[in-house]
Design goal:
By secondary structure, this protein is an alpha+beta fold. The chain has a domain of 141 residues: 2-Layer Sandwich (Ribosomal Protein S5, domain 2). It contains 6 helices and 8 strands. The longest helix is centred in the middle third of the chain and has 14 residues. The protein is elongated.
């Protein structure tokens, strides 16, 4: 009886080739079955994370505030600030805020078309175009914001306050306020082609009507 019972029970834990048990495969099989992830449209970068406290009746309530910048490395960039109970929640909320407030940058030959200075609260940011090969001359928050755009050559200077949130918003406002070269007031506009007007052919002058001499019958 014991031998019959052993023959009827399936052996699920019998080793296969390589010492692996039957049934579900190892980690390598799971990795092969996973579908490749689609590339992200926007690149996210966390600039700063602060721990903030709110005084309530029971004591202090600690939360986290995240400053995030997103960009597609072409001509769109956005900045967002949000709070959350933990770091991951704060970053996710700030990313959503940044994607809802994107600005378009007129990039010309991997640089900006003209210089721009913006003052926001106590922060002042100055950006200037640069020649090819110069690189991004910036530091801190300004460099983080420019790093997710399609700009490769630019000069910048941060003046005034050192508040990272104000500097980030001032940088984005300066980039969003750039005007393309085609819309400048002194831009060379293409000359309009004028087609010569074809004058209508003059109608021939009408000859004056000649009265016929009256006949004898009409004279009577």
């Amino acid at each position: 009886m014991a031998e019959a019972a052993e023959q009827t029970t399936p052996r699920t834990n019998a080793p296969q080739r390589g010492g692996r048990p039957q049934g579900r495969g190892g980690r390598r099989d799971d990795r092969r079955e996973r579908a490749p992830e689609a590339p992200k449209e926007f690149e996210e970068m966390v600039i700063n994370i602060d721990r903030v406290a709110r005084v309530v009746k029971g004591g202090r309530r600690f939360r986290f505030k995240a400053l995030v910048v997103v960009g597609n490395r072409k001509n769109k960039v956005g900045v967002g600030v949000a709070k959350g109970a933990d770091v991951q929640t704060a970053i996710a909320k700030a990313t959503d805020v940044a994607k809802k407030h994107l600005v378009t940058i007129p990039v010309v030959n991997e640089t900006i078309p003209h210089e721009m200075e913006v003052k926001l609260a106590g922060a002042r940011v100055l950006i200037k175009p640069a020649a090819p090969g110069t690189g991004i001359i910036a530091g801190g928050v300004v460099r983080s914001v420019i790093g997710v755009t399609g700009i490769r050559n630019m000069l910048s200077k941060s003046l005034g306050s050192t508040n990272k949130v104000n500097i980030a918003y001032a940088t984005v406002e300066a980039l969003g306020g750039l005007v393309p070269r085609e819309k400048w007031l002194n831009a060379d506009k293409p000359a309009k082609k004028t087609t010569p007007k074809v004058e209508a052919a003059e109608a021939p002058a009408k000859k004056p009507a000649v009265k016929k001499p009256a006949t004898k019958k009409e004279a009577k």
